[in-house]
Design a protein that fits this description.
Blueprint (H helix, E strand, L loop, with lengths): L4 H18 L5 H8 L5 H16 L1 H11 L10 H16 L6 H15 L4 H15 L1
Length: 135
Protein backbone atom coordinates (compact mmCIF):
# COMPACT_ATOMS: atom_id res chain seq x y z
CA UNK A 1 0.00 0.00 0.00
CA UNK A 2 1.44 3.33 -1.05
CA UNK A 3 1.24 6.13 1.48
CA UNK A 4 -0.34 9.36 0.41
CA UNK A 5 1.89 12.41 0.06
CA UNK A 6 0.19 14.02 3.05
CA UNK A 7 0.74 10.94 5.23
CA UNK A 8 4.39 10.85 4.18
CA UNK A 9 4.69 14.54 5.03
CA UNK A 10 3.09 14.01 8.45
CA UNK A 11 5.46 11.13 9.21
CA UNK A 12 8.46 13.15 8.05
CA UNK A 13 7.33 16.13 10.13
CA UNK A 14 6.95 13.83 13.15
CA UNK A 15 10.45 12.43 12.69
CA UNK A 16 12.01 15.88 12.38
CA UNK A 17 10.04 17.34 15.31
CA UNK A 18 11.11 14.35 17.38
CA UNK A 19 14.78 14.93 16.45
CA UNK A 20 14.60 18.65 17.24
CA UNK A 21 13.66 17.83 20.82
CA UNK A 22 17.04 16.11 21.21
CA UNK A 23 19.09 18.32 18.90
CA UNK A 24 17.46 21.78 18.93
CA UNK A 25 20.63 23.37 17.62
CA UNK A 26 20.21 21.71 14.21
CA UNK A 27 18.28 23.83 11.72
CA UNK A 28 15.02 22.39 10.36
CA UNK A 29 16.20 23.01 6.80
CA UNK A 30 19.25 20.85 7.51
CA UNK A 31 16.98 17.98 8.52
CA UNK A 32 14.76 18.48 5.46
CA UNK A 33 17.79 18.56 3.16
CA UNK A 34 18.72 15.07 4.37
CA UNK A 35 15.37 13.76 3.11
CA UNK A 36 15.08 15.79 -0.13
CA UNK A 37 16.30 12.95 -2.34
CA UNK A 38 13.95 10.42 -0.73
CA UNK A 39 10.64 12.28 -1.12
CA UNK A 40 8.70 14.20 -3.75
CA UNK A 41 8.93 18.00 -3.46
CA UNK A 42 5.27 18.24 -2.41
CA UNK A 43 5.97 15.94 0.56
CA UNK A 44 8.95 18.05 1.62
CA UNK A 45 6.92 21.27 1.21
CA UNK A 46 3.99 20.04 3.31
CA UNK A 47 6.32 18.60 5.98
CA UNK A 48 8.10 21.98 6.11
CA UNK A 49 4.75 23.71 6.48
CA UNK A 50 3.74 21.36 9.33
CA UNK A 51 7.06 21.65 11.15
CA UNK A 52 7.17 25.43 10.98
CA UNK A 53 3.49 25.69 11.91
CA UNK A 54 3.98 23.48 14.96
CA UNK A 55 7.13 25.29 16.07
CA UNK A 56 5.63 28.75 15.56
CA UNK A 57 2.43 27.80 17.43
CA UNK A 58 3.90 25.39 20.01
CA UNK A 59 2.68 27.38 23.03
CA UNK A 60 -0.89 27.62 21.69
CA UNK A 61 -0.90 23.96 20.68
CA UNK A 62 0.44 22.81 24.05
CA UNK A 63 -2.13 25.00 25.79
CA UNK A 64 -4.94 23.29 23.86
CA UNK A 65 -3.49 19.88 24.69
CA UNK A 66 -3.10 20.75 28.37
CA UNK A 67 -6.65 22.10 28.59
CA UNK A 68 -7.92 18.79 27.22
CA UNK A 69 -5.69 16.55 29.30
CA UNK A 70 -6.78 16.24 32.90
CA UNK A 71 -4.18 13.68 33.91
CA UNK A 72 -1.11 14.35 31.78
CA UNK A 73 1.19 17.33 31.62
CA UNK A 74 2.30 17.92 28.03
CA UNK A 75 5.99 17.78 28.93
CA UNK A 76 5.50 14.36 30.58
CA UNK A 77 3.84 12.77 27.54
CA UNK A 78 5.92 10.38 25.47
CA UNK A 79 7.93 12.40 22.94
CA UNK A 80 6.43 10.57 19.95
CA UNK A 81 2.87 10.96 21.24
CA UNK A 82 3.39 14.64 22.07
CA UNK A 83 4.64 15.41 18.57
CA UNK A 84 1.90 13.38 16.85
CA UNK A 85 -0.61 15.37 18.90
CA UNK A 86 1.05 18.68 18.05
CA UNK A 87 0.92 17.99 14.30
CA UNK A 88 -2.75 16.97 14.50
CA UNK A 89 -3.79 19.97 16.62
CA UNK A 90 -1.95 22.28 14.25
CA UNK A 91 -3.72 20.76 11.23
CA UNK A 92 -7.14 20.85 12.94
CA UNK A 93 -7.04 24.22 14.64
CA UNK A 94 -4.23 26.49 13.49
CA UNK A 95 -3.30 25.72 9.89
CA UNK A 96 -4.10 28.32 7.22
CA UNK A 97 -6.35 25.67 5.66
CA UNK A 98 -7.45 23.44 8.56
CA UNK A 99 -8.40 19.86 7.76
CA UNK A 100 -11.51 18.14 9.09
CA UNK A 101 -11.05 17.02 12.67
CA UNK A 102 -12.04 13.41 12.01
CA UNK A 103 -9.41 13.18 9.26
CA UNK A 104 -6.70 14.71 11.45
CA UNK A 105 -7.59 12.37 14.31
CA UNK A 106 -7.62 9.29 12.06
CA UNK A 107 -4.25 10.22 10.53
CA UNK A 108 -2.75 10.80 13.98
CA UNK A 109 -4.07 7.46 15.27
CA UNK A 110 -2.65 5.58 12.28
CA UNK A 111 0.74 7.25 12.72
CA UNK A 112 0.63 6.51 16.46
CA UNK A 113 0.04 2.82 15.68
CA UNK A 114 3.15 2.83 13.50
CA UNK A 115 5.54 4.87 15.65
CA UNK A 116 4.17 4.80 19.20
CA UNK A 117 3.68 2.24 21.92
CA UNK A 118 0.77 -0.18 22.16
CA UNK A 119 -1.14 2.48 24.15
CA UNK A 120 -0.30 5.42 21.87
CA UNK A 121 -3.18 5.06 19.41
CA UNK A 122 -5.90 5.09 22.08
CA UNK A 123 -4.15 7.89 24.01
CA UNK A 124 -3.85 10.04 20.87
CA UNK A 125 -7.44 9.28 19.83
CA UNK A 126 -8.88 10.16 23.23
CA UNK A 127 -6.91 13.35 23.69
CA UNK A 128 -7.55 14.65 20.17
CA UNK A 129 -11.26 13.88 20.59
CA UNK A 130 -11.22 16.09 23.70
CA UNK A 131 -9.32 18.84 21.87
CA UNK A 132 -11.92 18.80 19.11
CA UNK A 133 -14.74 19.18 21.68
CA UNK A 134 -13.11 21.69 24.04
CA UNK A 135 -11.26 23.97 21.69
Amino acid sequence: MKLTARRQARELALQILFQTEFAPQINIQTFLAVFEQSFDPDVIDYADQLINGVLKNKAAIDSKLQASSAHWKVERMATIDRNILRVAVYEMKLAAEPIKENIAINEAVEIAKKYGTSESASFVNGLLDQVSKVN
